[in-house]
Structure formats: C-alpha cells, structure tokens
Amino acid sequence: MAEDGWQPAAVDRGFRRAVAVPVQSDGSLEGVLAVYGTDDSETDPRERTLPADYGETIGYAFKTANWKQTLLSATPTAVEIRVPDERVPLVALARCLSEEATVDVRSAVSLGQDTLLYVAFVDGVSPETLADAASRVTAIRSVDVVGEDRPLQCEIETTLPTPESVLVEHGAQFEGATVDGDGATVSLVAPGREAIRRLAAGLRAVYADATVDKIRPTEHTDRAVDADDVLDRLTDRQREALELAFYEGYFEQPREHNATEVAERMSIERTTFSQHRRTAERKIFDQLLNRSR
Description:
10 helices; 8-stranded antiparallel β-sheet; two-stranded antiparallel sheet; Beta-Lactamase; Arc Repressor Mutant, subunit A; alpha+beta; extended
C-alpha cells in the first residue's frame, strides 16, 4: 500500500479491501462511491456489480435534482436534444459518409418556407466524398465547400423540416449541432420550463424518438466577449481602417462615404483599405461567432 493517501487511513480503521466506482451525472463526475470490507477475502463479482449499480442510481438522482432545479428557474435554459432519426437530412448525409466522419453545425439560416441553409464543418472526408454522399440524400439540395482547409467548411442547403426549423418555430434559439450516423445532437436555449416542454412536444410530433439529453441554466456567459479582447486581435492599421470607416459613415445605408473616399482619408489605395477592412471584419466575426473552434 502507498505510504500516504486513503489506504493507510482505511487500514488504521480495520478495512482490508475496497471497491470504488464513479458517480456521474450528464457525463460530469460528481464524486466517488467507495465500499470497504474488513476481511482479506477476494471481492466477488456481485460485490463489484452492486456498488456500480448504486453509483448509477446516485448519478441519476443528481441528474434529476439538477433538472428539477433548472426547470423551476426563470433564467434562460441551455438544452441538448438528441434526434436519432435518419429522416434528418444531415443524419442521412453522415450515414453516407465514413464512420469517422462528423458534421459540426455552426449556424442554420432560413432561406424561405421550405429551405434551410447550414454553415457546417465536416471532418474526416474529402470534398469529392462529401459531394458524392450529398448527391444520394434527396433532402439535400446543394453542398458548397468553402476553402480547402480541414475540416471542410461547407454551406449545405436542405429542404424542411429539420430539427432546427421545428425547434426555432416553437421558440428556441439555435446554438449549434453535432451530427454523426447515429443521430443529431442539437444545442439550443429555451426561455424557461414551459418552453422546454413545448419544444420537446413539438419536436416529437415530427421525430418521435427525439429525447432531451441535458438541461442546465445559462446566462450566455460563454458567449460574452470583451470588446477590448476583440479589438486587440487587430493590427493597428486594421483597427484604424475599421474605426475610420465606421465614423465616416461607410456602414450606413446609404453610405456617407465610399471605400475610395475612406482610403483617401487614410492615404492608402482603395484595395489596401478593402483588404484591411475585410481582414478586420473576419477576425471580429471569428471571435464572436466561431467560439467553439
């Protein structure tokens, strides 16, 4: 036995053997359940199984208590919903890809009454493989790969319904989704207890096997971004270009000054100003919207 830690303390109290199992709730470790014995006999399989069963029961109790507390709260609530249905367009796409392939959805934009545009990153496949798989999914209208970096950044246009369209229709704020061949896990924010019930019921009316996997209170603290932190990522020239464009009314509609006029104020070429502005905007949007990469 080790010279320090829990073993000497257990021996001093007459314990000769122990079984320890983790207590988990929603994938988070809540603690450890330890069972001790005073004899030197070998622990039999039943003595190992019972603590494991009790550990699962305790973990479920933690999960239930946390859910109850969250559901009674008036604060915005983060929810994860699992939809294991091959009728979901992106699930059907993932099933046509390799088992290692994953689809990470960052945004879902409505293009009209029957079309949704996803901005997603697809990992584990080539552009050619992705295009071939998409051609075999009736609900997918088009796939446009943006750039050559891996994972592939894509714009995927699909027909409705989708889990995201159903959830937004019932008052949810879409946060993102991860998809593989087994199903889609959709992350969203609901305004409260009744909203979660309404969302779940509305989704199950379309996808009967949908389940609520996680519920936790949130105030969107993970999305809060300090303005100074965002601007610190810019070079001096990029920041100057963006600030001058703002104060010169470049972003107004109609514009008070165009790109050529702003560039002249900075004593640089129009193309140089445009490059500074686009790079600055990309850095800011990456910080604000692309937080999980």
